[in-house]
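Example record

One chain of 195 residues, shown exactly as stored in the release files.
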Amino acid sequence: MCRSENVTVVEVVLMIKWTSMLRVSKNNRKNVWKIVSVFLVIVWMVVIFVMSNFPAETSSKQSGVVVEVVKTVFKVSPKQPDLFNNLTTIVRKCAHAFEYFVLGILLLNVIRQLWPTSCEKKWAGYWYLAVIGAFVYSVTDEIHQAFVSGRSCESRDIIIDTLAAGAGVGVVMLIRRWRKVFSNREDKQLIDGAA
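Predicted structure tokens for this chain:
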């Protein structure tokens, strides 16, 4: 009997040690996610910078490949040069929008990781911070493009970039709210079913 009591004490001590190790591990995971989140934002900003650093000729070739695919898929006639020019503009603006849609989501994630909260009001503040961060980066990106051969600084692109970042953040916020509504419904159904 004495021996089983000793084993129980040892088990309790091991459980306490293991639990404290798990707590440290959970904190380490949070720190790793913070680092990964910051790293992803930096990498994505570098991708945007590199794409903006291409001269107009290279950028046109990249857009041209996508335009050719769209023309083939939608069977656009070569006799419509206006449509081709409009398609090129649309492809370029969609590329801008995509870059900043992703940047908005990544910025929201970084802000959320660095300043975690469950308060809805703070989440609204996160939304603003992520969009403002994307706006500031968009302005610097357009200024950078003014110094690249054949490229220009356009306020229209800043507006597109900011709206796209807002859309990305908005999608995350809607998904978050949607998940919260459905989880509350499931909880209510469980409570109603138990009553």
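Notes: Residues 2-53+97-194 form one domain.
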